[in-house]
Structures are given as C-alpha cells and as structure tokens.
Amino acid sequence: MKHPILFWVLTVFGVFTLHLAVAGNIAVLGAAPNFLLLSTVFFAVRAGPVKGEILGFIWGMLSDIASTSVFGSQAFMLTFVGYAVGKLEGKVDEDKYSAQMALVFIMSAVNLLGLALLESLFGGAPQRFKDKSILLGPFYSTLLCPVVYWGLLKWGSLFRRSDLKARFQ
Amino acid sequence: MDWGIFRPSKSAALCLALLGVSFIVMTFRLSGAVTSMRTFLLYWISPIQQASSGSAQWTSDLGDKFIRLIRAHQENKALKDRILNASVLETQYQELLIENRRLRGLLKLKGSLPFNTQTARVIGRDPLNWTHAVWINRGSKDHVAQDSPVVAVRTEGEEEAGVVQGLIGRVLESSGGSSKVLLISDPLSSVAVSIPSIGELGLAQGEGPYLTVEYLELTSQAKPGDLVVTSGFGGIFPAGIPVGTLTRVEVSPSGFRRGFLKPEVSLNSVREVLILEMPRGPKD
Q1: Which residue among A3, A18, A85, B247 has the highest number of C-beta atoms inside a 10 angstrom radius?
Q2: Closest chain B residue by Cα to residue A34
Q3: pLDDT for residue B228
Q4: For A100-138, how does the pLDDT look when each residue is reduced to its tens digit (9 = 90+)?
Q5: Which ipTM did the prediction report?
C-alpha cells in the first residue's frame, strides 16, 4: 500500500469536490445523485465500520457546511450509514453489482427519511422533502453506483489498495 | 455480564461518539460557538466550492471544444491550428458580447439605485437542494453583509436593459471570497410582499419549485396575473422589487386566501446578480 494518509486526504477532498462540481450539473428532474453516500457505502463495505463512519462523518460535516440543511444532520446520517454498512463487511459480495446497488438504494432511502426526520425535529425545512423530485435521488444514486464504484476501484488501485479488492485491474 | 450481540465494540463506540457530536452540533447549531466553528470551516471550504465551480465550467465547455477540433481537422490539416484558433476566438468574442450586454445592464442599474450595489457571478449551487441556495463570487472580503438583498437585472432590449428583473434572495452567509444566497424558493425564505394593483399585503413563502403568498384576506381581490412586489416591511428588502406573478388564488386551511406565485426570475438559470447594500441599524 502506497501513501495511506495521502490516499485518504485526497479521497476525502476529491469526492467532496466531485460532489460539489458534478452532482448538481447532472441533476435530472431536480434529482441529483449523492456521491458522498455512494462513496461512504463503498468504503464502509470494503474497509469496515470504523473507516465507514469516520468518512461518513467528515463528508456529512463538509456537506452540512456547504448546504442549507440543519447543520449536523448530514453528518449524523452518513455516520449512521457508514456504521450500518460497515457491519456488513465480509457479508456482502463486493463483486456483485446487484448486491451493491441494493445496498445503495436502501441506504439512500434511509438517508432521505432520516434527513427529513431531523429537519422536522430540529426546526429546519421538512417541506423540502415533500418535493417529489427528491424521491428520485435514491434511484439516480443506485443507477450511478457501478460507474462510481468502478472509478473508486481504479482510484484505489493507483495507491495499490489491496483492501479495496479491485475487480477491474 | 454477557452483552451478547450488544457487546460494545470499537466501531460501535466510535459511531456513538460521532453521532453524539452530530447531535450536539444540531442541538446547539444556533449558539455562538457552533456558528463560529461553521464560519471558520466555511472559510476553508469556499476555495473548494470555487475550484469545483471552475471545473464544472471546464467540463461543460469540453464538448464544444472537441467538436470544434474535429471540424478543423476535417477541413484542412495545414489550416487546422488557424481555424481552431479563429473559432475559439469567435466563440470567446460572442461570449464577451453577451457578457458585455449583461454587465452594461448591471452598470446602468447600479447608477440608478439609491443605495450601493455590487455585481456578482453565480459560481455554484447547493448540491443537496438545487433550487434552494446558490454561491456567488463576492464574500466578506468585498464587504458583503448578511441579509443583503440579491436581485437579477434585465439584460435584453435597449429600453429594458438595466431594470431590476426580480428578487432572487438574500445573503445567508458570507465568507472570504464567496457568499451563500438563500433563494426565495427555499422553504426557509419568507418575504413581506404587496400586490400594487389592489394594495394588499402578504407574505411570500418559498415552497421549493414555486412560491406562495400567504395571509391574503378572505375578501381579497387578488387574481391570476397580478404582479407581486416586495413591500419593504421587515427591513431586509427594499420596497418595489418584483417577486413574481400570481398564477392561482385559493382559500387556505388557515382561513386566509393563498396565492401561488411564479417567480419573476428563473432561479435555475440566473448567472449574474446584483447585491444591494442596505443601510442597517446596529444589531441588538
């Protein structure tokens, strides 16, 4: 494994920059893919719950700062997603797209429900979640899952991350 | 004691700690300490926002550049560089012409408004809530104050160029070289408005893709097609800025009439904006 710290630093800021730069520009019918959730699931299922929840927390916090949602809500949900998916480490076939996509879809839906609940509890703007287009988000993220995971595996292989179990090398 | 499946592990303990931190941050998000931390982090994140905006722009131009390159290559190999340069220059010229017209419109308005203004460019959008907030390239370094109104300016036509087209929102947070603008379509946004044709007052409330005008009287004469402008009450927005046009009026469950509003400005496609520097009294 080459430069582990550099790998994680670049991954955190690279994925966040990708999310800011691309997610909104490829929105369809008002729904954008959630690259942060996709990446959290990717790393949690391969690297375990500790890395999953730490990455989820950092990406959630960065996303909270950049958005108008209740500050801390996305950190909360992505931490939970990172932990929950990480507990499935070794139980999900990382080489099966269907399994990965099902996981992403379920976690996207959980994330959306959780965010709506937190917005209601903490006096945010839960009306945002009444917009039907936002329900397309989990489907969109699920469809993009194979492409994003292929990219992340390639990225991991640049740093010789054998723990990410690169399939396309 | 046998904890069984509930045996605390390192990952569970860390998860609880991170969830706890998030929960505390959510609970105390309006306190001075958390607000200061957020402002500090925002200062460091704004360069990423600007960089990502630049990369998005580069990505969106990539297709055009590629097509132009192929055409030049097909036409003549020897003239390829010259043709490519010419076409790039021409595109840039057209872009500059359009930009020039827009900026002229902004400048024309700047001179006619009774308060100081700053022009700004939209450099990004809230990725989670596409229609709720935008980032602009003016920040605290440019003395952009929180709650400053942000408007769009008409840039087409000789007569209409330079006239305020409509309200976009207000500055939510300002940091370094950029600011976050809360759009009027965000559910957190409320604007005191009036309907000049009948002299009634109401409250424009963001609902995501559209806006509503709440608290119109039951006897209100408001009808589809009526223009709705800011009333000036509330002290954030000056009076008379167009907000939108009524498309429908109905009786709301609260016992008032409610109007549905189509924003005067296309909030999804706005590129250049004007920040109004309103005189503010000292905060309590």
Answers
A1: A85
A2: B128
A3: 93
A4: 899 999 999 999 899 888 888 887 666 666 777 778 888
A5: 0.84
B247-251 long-range CB contacts below 8 Å, 24 or more apart?
B248/B224, B249/B216, B249/B220, B249/B222, B249/B223, B249/B224, B251/B218
Alpha-carbon gap, residue B184 to B179, rounded angstroms: 16
- Indicate yes or no: CB of A73 within 8 angstroms of CB of B188: no
Residue B54: helix, strand or coil by DSSP?
Answer: helix
What residues of A are in contact with residue B27 (Cβ under 8 Å)? 122
Residue B260, C-beta contacts closer than 8 angstroms, at least 6 positions apart? B210, B211, B212, B213, B246, B247, B248, B249, B250
Residues of A in contact with B59 (CB under 8 A): 21-22, 25
- In order of their start, the domains of chain A are 4-164 (1.10.1760.20)
Residue A50 tokens, joined:
């500790």
Distance CA B118, CA B108 (A): 12
Min Cα distance A161 → chain B (Å) is 21
How many residues does this entry show for chain B? 284
Q: How far is CA A93 from the centre of its chain?
A: 18
- Give burial (CB, 10 Å; 0-12/13-18/19+) of B8: exposed
Contact A49, A87 (CB under 8 A): yes
Q: Quickly tell me which residue has 């500090």 as its tokens.
A: B40
What DSSP state is assigned to residue B193? E
| pLDDT tens by residue, A32-42 | 889 999 999 99
pTM > 0.90: no
**Domains of chain B listed by start with CATH number:** 32-279 (2.40.10.350)
